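Repro:
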Amino acid sequence: MQRTLVAGALAVLLSACATQATQPRNPPPATPGVAEGATLVQEAWISADVVGEELDSLATWSAEDGRTWLLATGKSGHRLTLFDGDSGAVSRTVGARGEGHGSFNRPNGITVFGDLVFVVERDNRRVQVLSLPGFEPLGAFGQAELRSPYGIWLNEVAPGELDAYVTDSFMYGARFDVLPADQELDQRVRRYRLEPRDDGMAARYLGAFGATSGAGKLHMVESIAGDPAHDRLLIAEEDRNRPSNLREYDLAGRFAGRSLPEGTFDGEAEGVVLWSCGVDSGYWIAVDQQAPLTRFHVFARADLAPVGSFHGARVARTDGIALHAAATTRFPAGAFYAVHNDLAVAAFDLRDLVQALRLDPACLH
């Protein structure tokens, strides 16, 4: 089954100016008894609250004028909120509740590739594609297969040709709180091939995967990210009764036989991003969703060995995160962004993360 998407052009939009004073670099030591075992890294800023949106997932995009956009999905507002990546100021919102092109219904996952933004809509059961910077709707895919989609990760398998991995956390019961039977867990991640054509791009369903027995089962899924250099997918198992963890699969959809060590996450495993520092080196950063402070765990890219953990001074109940490894005016070595309490977004300077956790300084170049 195929659906056509028409590619859009790249252009410029001015972002808003600064709202909050930046915090000093050179973070102090962790406060005893607060997020024990994690290092305090001071937020560079936290945006003003955006009430009523229920912010969830994040992605970044670099405009032609060098400005950085931080895009956030709003599950309850049924639209996207655009923040200035340097200051945290809100520049605009995009969309409204609906089923048509350019409208959203419970948008959750989001990612950017080139000048295209992919938005996963749970209640429209699709992935919608829009062109930046104008957010012109180009089309959608997945309506025939997706039942309750949440997260997305894209892998470029050839120039301009993508594989899209979409998590599908469908549930049963009047309150949608009943897990599917084990034999249905082979539908927890769905894969699509997005192929360029003269009139745009076509989406073709490649099937679904997920273990139906053993330690690789995915009961409740949302966040997903991958690393082609190590043939690796990390998929967040959010069912805290299991307990919550990140499961490792390969890009073909086979369980790799391991997860992160049990007990790594005290809360829910949420967002996960790869910080690539070269061909095959770097780090993974994963959310341990907690209150009063979210804990962020860092793992070595190659072997997933724990490197350290950190928390901010205020950031709590984080869902989505985004890593922007390119230089911006405010963050010459890049920034790490996190949702705060469903209401705001926070930024961390990557230089502060490297200093506090003694990470490889080469990741800043």
